[in-house]
């Protein structure tokens, strides 16, 4: 016995398949287009938290122009960090972004000195310039130029997402598997 599909059913199934294709394909770094028309020479889909790192490395100055993207919740924050000493969160130096209590996107640098950091603005041991943030398609992107980097183009990176408290202050992230595994080594001179 053959099962027939009506035109509305075929249209419905086609729409679902197309939306699945675009939602899946939009989650890669290689096909991403920034609304600000910025471009980068390299990118990596990070293995946890649906995050992505884009960069252009300048060997002559040992600096990297970066864009870090991660999903955003209305009361959430994202952060990308370099740990100059080891592959862990403690000791990392972060760029953090979120929507503040006035509804504006905000980004600043902070240091992670323990397991329940204050997340208050602080200077880092390496130079950060052109720090900015944009929100588009339920994603926050942090843009910056980092460096020169003391240890060269190979760095320990950490990335994270979390929630804001009722006063709009970043709180400690969840302790789920993906949060605890969101660390890696990146070679800015590769790719």
TrEMBL record:
It holds the Pfam family DUF568. Residues 1-26 form the signal peptide. CDD domains: DOMON_CIL1_like. Its main location: membrane. This is DOMON domain-containing protein. GO terms for cellular component: membrane. Residues 49-162 form the DOMON domain. It is found in: Membrane. Keywords: Electron transport, Membrane, Signal, Transport. InterPro entries: AIR12_DOMON (IPR045265), DOMON_domain (IPR005018). It comes from the Eukaryota.
């Amino acid at each position: 016995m053959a099962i027939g599909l009506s035109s509305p059913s075929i249209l419905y199934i086609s729409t679902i398949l197309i939306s699945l294709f675009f939602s899946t394909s939009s989650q890669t770094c290689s096909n991403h287009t920034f609304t600000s028309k910025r471009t980068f020479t390299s990118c990596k889909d990070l293995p946890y938290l649906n995050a992505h790192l884009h960069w252009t490395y300048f060997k002559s100055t040992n600096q990297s122009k970066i864009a870090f993207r991660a999903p955003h919740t209305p009361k959430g924050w994202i952060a990308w960090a370099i740990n100059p000493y080891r592959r862990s969160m403690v000791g990392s130096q972060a760029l953090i972004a979120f929507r503040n209590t006035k509804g504006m996107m905000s980004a600043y640098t902070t240091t992670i000195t323990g397991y329940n950091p204050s997340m208050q603005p602080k200077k880092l041991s390496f130079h950060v310039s052109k720090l900015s943030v944009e929100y588009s398609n339920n994603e926050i992107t942090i843009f910056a130029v980092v460096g020169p980097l003391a240890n060269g183009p190979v760095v320990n990176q950490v990335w994270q997402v979390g929630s804001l408290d009722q006063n709009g202050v970043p709180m400690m992230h969840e302790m789920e598997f993906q949060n605890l595994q969101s660390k890696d080594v990146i070679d800015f001179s590769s790719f």
